[in-house]
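=== Given protein ===
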Amino acid sequence: MTPLKTYKRIVFCDFDGTITAEETFVGMLKRFAAESYDATEDLLIEGKITLGEAVRRLVESIPSKRYPQVLDYVKDKPIRQGFSELLDFLYFHGVPLMVVSGGLMGSVSAKLAPFQNRILAMYAAEVDAEGDFLRVHSDFESATELVAKTRVMGLYRCEQSIVIGDGITDLNIAMTADLVFARDRLCGYLTEKGKPFIRWEDFFDVCNHLSKRWLAAK
């Protein structure tokens, strides 16, 4: 077996609400799975179903004929400021970036197509639209998550893992990471867990912090 390449640093970045300036996956589900969204959300809050079960239930309630509209949903949603600059900064320093999303690969890859040559890999749930309703599957499913981001992290070896995220789907991978950039609800979750993090608003904040940190380390 060929040994895994060891990177000095790797950045694992969330997509929805992190790269996109708004939570596009939840917005998509509210629009296209509106009839079952509230009831499913209640079951999730009550702890009767897992996050992975909730996502599967909602996605698979969407008729396949609406899948083109699902993909179109993210087209006009803005990318958070500084993302292109972050990719340039990481490329200059030889640091790969992985996009790890709890959403749908079709939406992620379509939105990030202009940046694809600077992203080492993208991970998200895959969709089968052959039947009457969408079917979703993931190579990284766990007992509670449709896309267990820590399993993606486990594919790679690095001296320092850096996570950028904003919500509950980023909690487990953030707890595992060496350095975490958190915004929105993820800040509260990490504070409760006692996990240190750096608060950020746009990707310029991330670039500035990493630049100072890496300069100081030389």
The two ends are 35 Å apart (CA to CA). The CA atoms of residues 128 and 135 lie 5 Å apart. The chain has one domain: 6-217.
